[in-house]
Each structure stands twice: as C-alpha cells, then as structure tokens.
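F.,

This is the one I mentioned.
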C-alpha cells in the first residue's frame, strides 16, 4: 500500500487494513479486545499515515497471508434444486428400469407409463429452475415467505392464545 503522509484514506484502504488485522487476530498476534480497538481506530482515521500507525507494531503480511480468500460464487442452481433434480433422475431411472423389465417379460414394448412420472415432475423442476420460482435464502422474498409460514403456523396452532376462535 502506498502511504503518502497527509493523504486521505479511502474506505477500500480501511477495509484492507481491517482484513489484515483479522489475519493477525487469526494468527494469534492480537487478542479480541485489541482487535476491536484497532478496528475502531481504523474506521475513525482520516489519513493514510494514521492507518499505518495501526499496523506499525505488527509484522507485514505476505501476499498469501494478507489476501482474503475469494468469496465462493454461488452455484448457478441452488443446492435444494440440485437435490430435487437428483431425486427426479433417480426415480426416472427406477421407473424406466421397471418399464423395461415389464416390456422384456411381455416380449414387446408396453405402454410407456413412465412418462406420467418423469414428465410432469421434470417439467415442474425445469420451470422452477428457469424462473427462479423459489426464493434464495436470505433474500427479502425468502424472508416474506418465512413470515407467511410463521403466521400460518401461529394461526393453526391450537395452543396459541392469540388464535382467533
């Protein structure tokens, strides 16, 4: 970091210093109380030379230590949809094997009834993946869904004193 005396510090520079302090905390060079004090000092600073003072008694970090791990990209398809797709695929294989065994036993291709299991279920899964029908956990839509579920559960709970009679 280029530290020029008197130059005002940016938020990005402050966040970089806080990340370095976090590494020093994780390495055991700082205890939690001192870490909290230094972080408060970092966010109260105005200039780069004040930021340098916060790290002055700590050893410089190597680039490998100081770089925060890159945040993992969320999967394109959420985990619950991948689980559902795996279940669909497993059941599809099972019903196709059953249909194949029945056809083999009968000596001819029988009515293709697995389409009534595979088709609608697959269509629903595909619709949900393409449209993002389900809310991602942590989003406002997801929180509203959870609140609705909680209200419904309270309404249906016979032991709830606020339940309308």
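My design for it:
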């Amino acid at each position: 970091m280029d530290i020029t005396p008197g130059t005002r510090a940016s938020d990005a520079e402050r966040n970089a210093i806080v990340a370095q302090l976090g590494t020093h905390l994780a390495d055991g060079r700082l205890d939690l109380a001192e870490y909290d004090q230094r972080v408060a000092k970092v966010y109260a600073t105005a200039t780069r030379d004040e930021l340098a003072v916060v790290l002055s008694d700590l050893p410089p970090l190597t680039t490998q230590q100081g770089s925060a791990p890159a945040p993992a990209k969320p999967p394109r398809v959420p985990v619950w949809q991948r689980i559902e797709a795996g279940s669909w695929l497993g059941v599809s294989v099972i019903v196709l094997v059953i249909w194949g065994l029945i056809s083999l036993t009968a000596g001819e291709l029988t009515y293709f009834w697995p389409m009534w299991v595979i088709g609608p279920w697959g269509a629903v899964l595909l619709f949900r993946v393409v449209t993002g029908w389900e809310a991602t956990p942590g989003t406002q839509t997801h929180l509203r869904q959870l609140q609705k579920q909680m209200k419904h559960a309270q309404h249906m709970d016979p032991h709830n004193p606020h339940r309308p009679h």
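The mean pLDDT is 78.

Talk soon.
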